[in-house]
Request: fold
Amino acid sequence: MCISRDKHRDFGLWRDLVTNRCDSGVLHATGYESIVLDYAWDKYGSTCIENLPAKARALPRWKIKAYWFMGLVYVHHYPRWNKFISSILTSRATGPISCHKFYSYVLPILVEFSKVIDEIKWDERLHPMNHGSHMFKDRFTTIFDGTNINVLNVRADKKLQRLLFSGSKYNHCCVKIMIGITFMGTIVHYTGPHAGTLHDEKILQQHPPDFEPWEWGLGDGAFLSNPHILVKHIQPAGGLLTKPQVTINTIFNYWRLRVEHIIGEIKRHDMFDGVFRGSYVTLKSAIDLTVNMTQIKIKLSLPRYRTLGPWGHEPHSYQHKKAKTA
Reply:
């Protein structure tokens, strides 16, 4: 049963939208804690409402807020072939969300919110605590990696199929996104979706981060020929790595694996953990929103990882720091 509009005119508690009316229910429903939703809505909600189509903008503010919440539920519990939208998107405040309401209100709100949310800041890589150990104490700022999101295999459009079908690695039609994070775990670089057949190195070449001349990033072997990305030592064919090379690779892997953790955070929603079967606009909006919401989640729970600092990132900054404290 829907609760009256008057009771929710100043709607603000996310837990009123979930069955158990607890913060644990909010986390289960959306993948985010209430504090993350509060931050995102308080910062971007008004701008989103201003940009909505007239039909959606005419809704009471509490209902727009509730429908945005339902959009997050849709991404987190993406309905497969054996589930209806209304069975997933329902609450005491909104009642079951029909397909008509979903496409008239929920999806437009999700799309517009994804356009206005803006939490990925490249300059944040220069945070004084964004330092690794050993050879990563200065110059190195960002760790890069790409990942795939599978989409429905295209059969009717052969040209599109050739663009999206990655047979050598994923054996499925997919799109890819590129992520760059700091040693602290915060996201400072994001592009996508890209065609599934594009190599990670090619994606970074087409959408290059604005590195300083002295600056370096970390990445896996896919970035081997990038002049600003360090990769680990590759074992030669028929040979072995030396002991110093193994030591360097161990240190390298300790720091680089953090980007895989963050990609795991982004892809832990059901829409990205199977085969997506909707439109490109829906997928792009969901990815853009999820990457930015994940960034908010990370920043509100810092420190996530242990790092070194504080000092600058320019060459020899660490040595200057030692000299000043000596």
Remarks:
- The chain has two domains: 6-116, 122-325.
- The CA atoms of residues 177 and 217 lie 17 Å apart.
- Residues 6-116 form one domain.
